[in-house]
Amino acid sequence: xxxxxxxxxxxxxxxxxxxxxxxxxxxxxxxxxxxxxxxxxxxxxxxxxxxxxxxxxxxxxxxxxxxxxxxxxxxxxxxxxxxxxxxxxxxxxxxxxxxxxxxxxxxxxxxxxxxxxxxxxxxxxxxxxxxxxxxxxxxxxxxxxxxxxxxxxxxxxxxxxxxxxxxxxxxxxxxxxxxxxxxxxxxxxxxxxxxxxxxxxxxxxxxxxxxxxxxxxxxxxxxxxxxxxxxxxxxxxxxxxxxxxxxxxxxxxxxxxxxxxxxxxxxxxxxxxxxxxxxxxxxxxxxxxxxxxxxxxxxxxxxxxxxxxxxxxxxxxxxxxxxxxxxxxxxxxxxxxxxxxxxxxxxxxxxxxxxxxxxxxxxxxxxxxxxxxxxxxxxxxxxxxxxxxxxxxxxxxxxxxxxxxxxxxxxxxxxxxxxxxxxxxxxxxxxxxxxxxxxxxxxxxxxxxxxxxxxxxxxxxxxxxxxxxxxxxxxxxxxxxxxxxxxxxxxxxxxxxxxxxxxxxxxxxxxxxxxxxxxxxxxxxxxxxxxxxxxxxxxxxxxxxxxxxxxxxxxxxxxxxxxxxxxxxxxxxxxxxxxxxxx
Length: 583
Fold this sequence. Notes:
The chain is an alpha+beta fold. Helix content is 29%, strand content 22%. The chain folds into 3 domains: 2-168, no CATH class; 250-455, Rossmann fold (3-Layer(aba) Sandwich); 457-579, no CATH class. Strands 1, 2, 3, 4, 5, 7 and 8 form a 7-stranded mixed β-sheet that branches. It has a 6-stranded mixed β-sheet with strand order 19-22-23-16-24-25, sandwiched between helices. Strands 14-15-11-18 form a 4-stranded antiparallel β-sheet, sandwiched between helices. Strand 7 and strand 8 (126-133) form a beta hairpin. Helix 1 runs antiparallel to helix 4, helix 12 crosses helix 14 (562-571) and helix 13 crosses helix 14 (562-571). It is globular.
């Protein structure tokens, strides 16, 4: 086994040589209190940084076993450790010392959400941090002394202050662990309580700006107050402020309208709910906004590709004898894209839909009485959402939470109406029903196609190709909403529940993984997603990267939900599918 002293000598030997001499550093080195693994060495200072792992035995790290007791606690504690490492990188590492990425030390740290990540492994035997380091050079000449500073001064300081529990803020790590476990405990209670979502009393929902997910300062925000008739009490696994329960607003399953004037907080509430499928860091303000884990945000998406989706429940008898049962297009309209988005979400198991009229196609959502009188149904292929929303709940147990500011026609199909006034919610269900009875909408109920089931589809493996040029696999996340997959670009700008670029990266590699491992021309999209979920549960994210060799770490993946995985698959423009035959 090589030692830290061996690494020091190697660095001295290659000082001033060409950059490729850094390749000699690859290997494992024993320091006094940790192991360093240099897994991958970058080819030049402008390339992706080198990959290293630091492993500390639990005999030395001494992370308390109670923090590892459940998967949820371990997730929260691990997320806290990643953030502490990130803080100490900023504290101890110099930002720049040469050309390109020279001197860079990073770890894949999250935003406001707590997600399973490959950046850190935490178990009863050891804790392992996966980082990237830009090995320093001037031009392409090795700067070994600066590299020695990184490996023997900065890195030990970072690890010493981040992975040894005696040096940590124990309350900080414990709080992350307990909040995360509480979140998933509350999420499990939603179904048994008949709820689609829960918003804790005094939650801070507004964000500091349109481009930031950090909370608006408490002194500027209106704390959320649950209407008395929707107030519920849920159990906590870990007591909070001395209480083993939490109170807040329970949004029942069924059809819920969120109404109110412009700028009064309707979309703010819906945005909090769409991100409430994820645990949040303590202090976020939305850490106890908890949504059905199968909830999917639905919107119109002009221009997206659709491949053989049976959209007849919403759109049928298309002009030109276009087949709505196997609807395909390279350039969907607002209404056809929204219909496809709904049916694709239901296909993989969504039980709650989140819809904002501002991002919906108007002709998909409603046809009022005057338009019905002018344009007869025989010339209108669209069955509006208003005429299917209750059927979706009664036949398929799919709830809908809908922000609506422009059409009172939805009053007649709603189970619950929440009115937002200056960011405060009020129950207006009874008033809305009285208005619906008093002011007759006079519109005709439009629904002709009998909707018995959601048509499942089977992706064809030959349609997936991640190669580009001489590279067998070329996959890259270009920000949160774009994946380069081989020669194709997958546009995810309207997949609003992707929240982290590392999720997007994992989506790209998971698509390739699925196509190579399980995609056989027989399994449906839903079956493939279920296999992937089970695989992640048992193996984590490490095996997604085909470039990975031996112990080389894939430290920049965060786990996406299966709904965003399926959304990316459906937006891959080379996708070919066949429909599963009904039994």
